[in-house]
Automatic annotation (TrEMBL):
This is Aspartate-semialdehyde dehydrogenase. It comes from the Bacteria. The lineage of its organism: Bacteria, Pseudomonadati, Pseudomonadota, Alphaproteobacteria, Sphingomonadales.
Length: 184
C-alpha cells in the first residue's frame, strides 16, 4: 500500500511540471540565459524578460512579472484582453516605452516593443544586435537574421528562432518574442 501511495505521489508531482520553465539545474548548466541588469533597467530576450535582479522566462506568473516591471518602469499605461487571438485569448499589459507583455492563463507568453516617443523607453534594453530604429540595410549583419518571405504583415524578419520583428519606412519598427496576437 505504501508503494502505491508513493507511486501516486511521484506521478502527481511529475504532473505539476509544465516543462516550460527551465529548472534551476538547467539554468546553472549555462544553457539557458539567466541575466540580471542594473536595478533601473529592463532587458528583453528571446526567452522572456529581466527586470533588475529578477529574470522571468516565458511561463512565469503574471503577478510576479508585472510587479518587477512596475518597480522599474512605473505603473502600466494600459491593460486589455483580446478574446479572438489565433493563439487563444490573450491579456496584454503595456508600459511607457511602447513595451507590451502578453499573458495567457496568468502566465507570461510573449512581449513586443515598438518605437517609443522621445524620452520613453530609455531604460529598456533588447538582448540582440538589432534595435528599434535601426536601418533596414543593417539588418543583414545581425546575428540570426532571416527575412520572412511572403509575410502578410509587411516586411517581417526573424532573429534566430526566438525573436522577430518588422521593418517600416526603411527602419526596424517593432521587435517581438513569444506568443503574439498577430492576424496573418
Amino acid at each position: 500500500m505504501r508503494r502505491l501511495a508513493l507511486g501516486v505521489m511521484v506521478l502527481a508531482l511529475a504532473a505539476c511540471d509544465s516543462g516550460q520553465v527551465p529548472s534551476p539545474a538547467d539554468r546553472m548548466a549555462g544553457d539557458i540565459p539567466v541575466d540580471t541588469v542594473d536595478e533601473g533597467l529592463v532587458a528583453l530576450h528571446g526567452e522572456g524578460v529581466v527586470a533588475g535582479a529578477e529574470s522571468f522566462f516565458f511561463a512565469a506568473g503574471r503577478n510576479e512579472v508585472e510587479t518587477a516591471l512596475t518597480k522599474v518602469l512605473g505603473e502600466p499605461v494600459s491593460r486589455n484582453e483580446i478574446e479572438e487571438c489565433g493563439a487563444g485569448p490573450m491579456q496584454m499589459t503595456s508600459y511607457a516605452g511602447e513595451l507590451t507583455l502578453n499573458f495567457q492563463s496568468g502566465s507570461l507568453v510573449g512581449w513586443n516593443i515598438g518605437s517609443a516617443p522621445e524620452g520613453e523607453g530609455e531604460n529598456i534594453q533588447i538582448d540582440a544586435d538589432v534595435t528599434i530604429g535601426m536601418a533596414a540595410d543593417d539588418l543583414a549583419a545581425a546575428t540570426g537574421y532571416t527575412p520572412i518571405e511572403g509575410s502578410t504583415l509587411g516586411e517581417e524578419f526573424a532573429l534566430s528562432n526566438t525573436m522577430g520583428g518588422f521593418v517600416d519606412s526603411g527602419a526596424v519598427s517593432m521587435l517581438y518574442a513569444g506568443a503574439q496576437c498577430f492576424f496573418r
